[in-house]
Amino acid sequence: MKGLFITLEGIDGAGKSSHVEWLAEYFRNQGRCVVLTREPGGTPVGEQLREIVLHAPMATETEALIMFAARREHLDVVIRPGLARGDVVISDRFTDASFAYQCGGRGLSEDRLAILEAWVHGDLQPDLTLLFDVPNDVAQARLSAARAPDRFEQEKRDFHARVRAAYLRRAERYPHRIRVIDGSRTLDAVRAQLATILETL
Ligand code: TYD
């Protein structure tokens, strides 16, 4: 069976994490092997880089390079081998997050980032990206109840508004790959929409 690469995206607090296990179950029920993973992270080196990039202050370029260093390792150790086995690889975030956060949020040039993308995985894009979208106020309210905020969660309101806008622009640019999910609805309503999208795969 052909491997399937699915990525989950959205601003912090959009609710994607609430659906990861459900998605994995959906594919397991079809008899597929599922690899659940995340970025930044997903490998021993990547998880160390995650600790650094989520907590240490640094230049925007450094941040982008660390994201792609972790991604390079992730592709080698987890994503490509999983796809080669025919598994469904579900990653909580991937390169769309770099375009949304480092370009949209921080203002890094998209041309620069596109060079890193071409270098690190020019031959490979997700088969499907589920973009969980909620208004910034809703996301913010969900986050304030959560654990201690990391460097991205600590950013101001306009940062998150720019990240959201950048994600939505990417969804307009790649409508066949990126499907927008209204994450402000109930879990059941979101799952019904997810099921409809997955049936088309
Ligand atoms: P997140 O999925 O929000 O982790 P958690 O649910 O445990 O908080 O990811 C961590 C942060 O990393 C998130 O705020 C977005 C940021 N990020 C980037 O800025 N660029 C990237 O390329 C990736 C993958 C993540």
Question: How is the secondary structure organized here?
Answer:
Elements: E1 4-10, H1 20-28, E2 34-38, H2 44-55, H3 60-85, E3 88-92, H4 95-105, H5 110-121, E4 128-133, H6 136-144, H7 157-173, E5 178-182, H8 187-199
Parallel strand pairs: 1-3, 1-4, 2-3, 4-5
Helix pairs in contact: 2-3, 3-5, 4-7
Bound molecules: thymidine-5'-diphosphate (TYD).
Thymidine-5'-diphosphate (TYD) is lined by residues 12, 17, 39-40, 67, 92-93, 97-98, 101-102, 152.
Please tag this protein with its features:
8 helices, five-stranded parallel β-sheet, Rossmann fold, 5 strands, 201 residues, binds thymidine-5'-diphosphate, alpha/beta
Could you describe the 3D structure shown?
The two termini are 13 Å apart. The protein has a 5-stranded parallel beta sheet with strand order 2-3-1-4-5, with helices on both faces. The radius of gyration is 16 Å and the shape is globular. It is an alpha/beta fold and 201 residues long. It has a single domain, classed as Rossmann fold (3-Layer(aba) Sandwich). The protein is built from 8 helices and 5 strands. The longest helix has 26 residues. Bound molecules: thymidine-5'-diphosphate (TYD). The site of thymidine-5'-diphosphate has 12 residues, from helix 4.
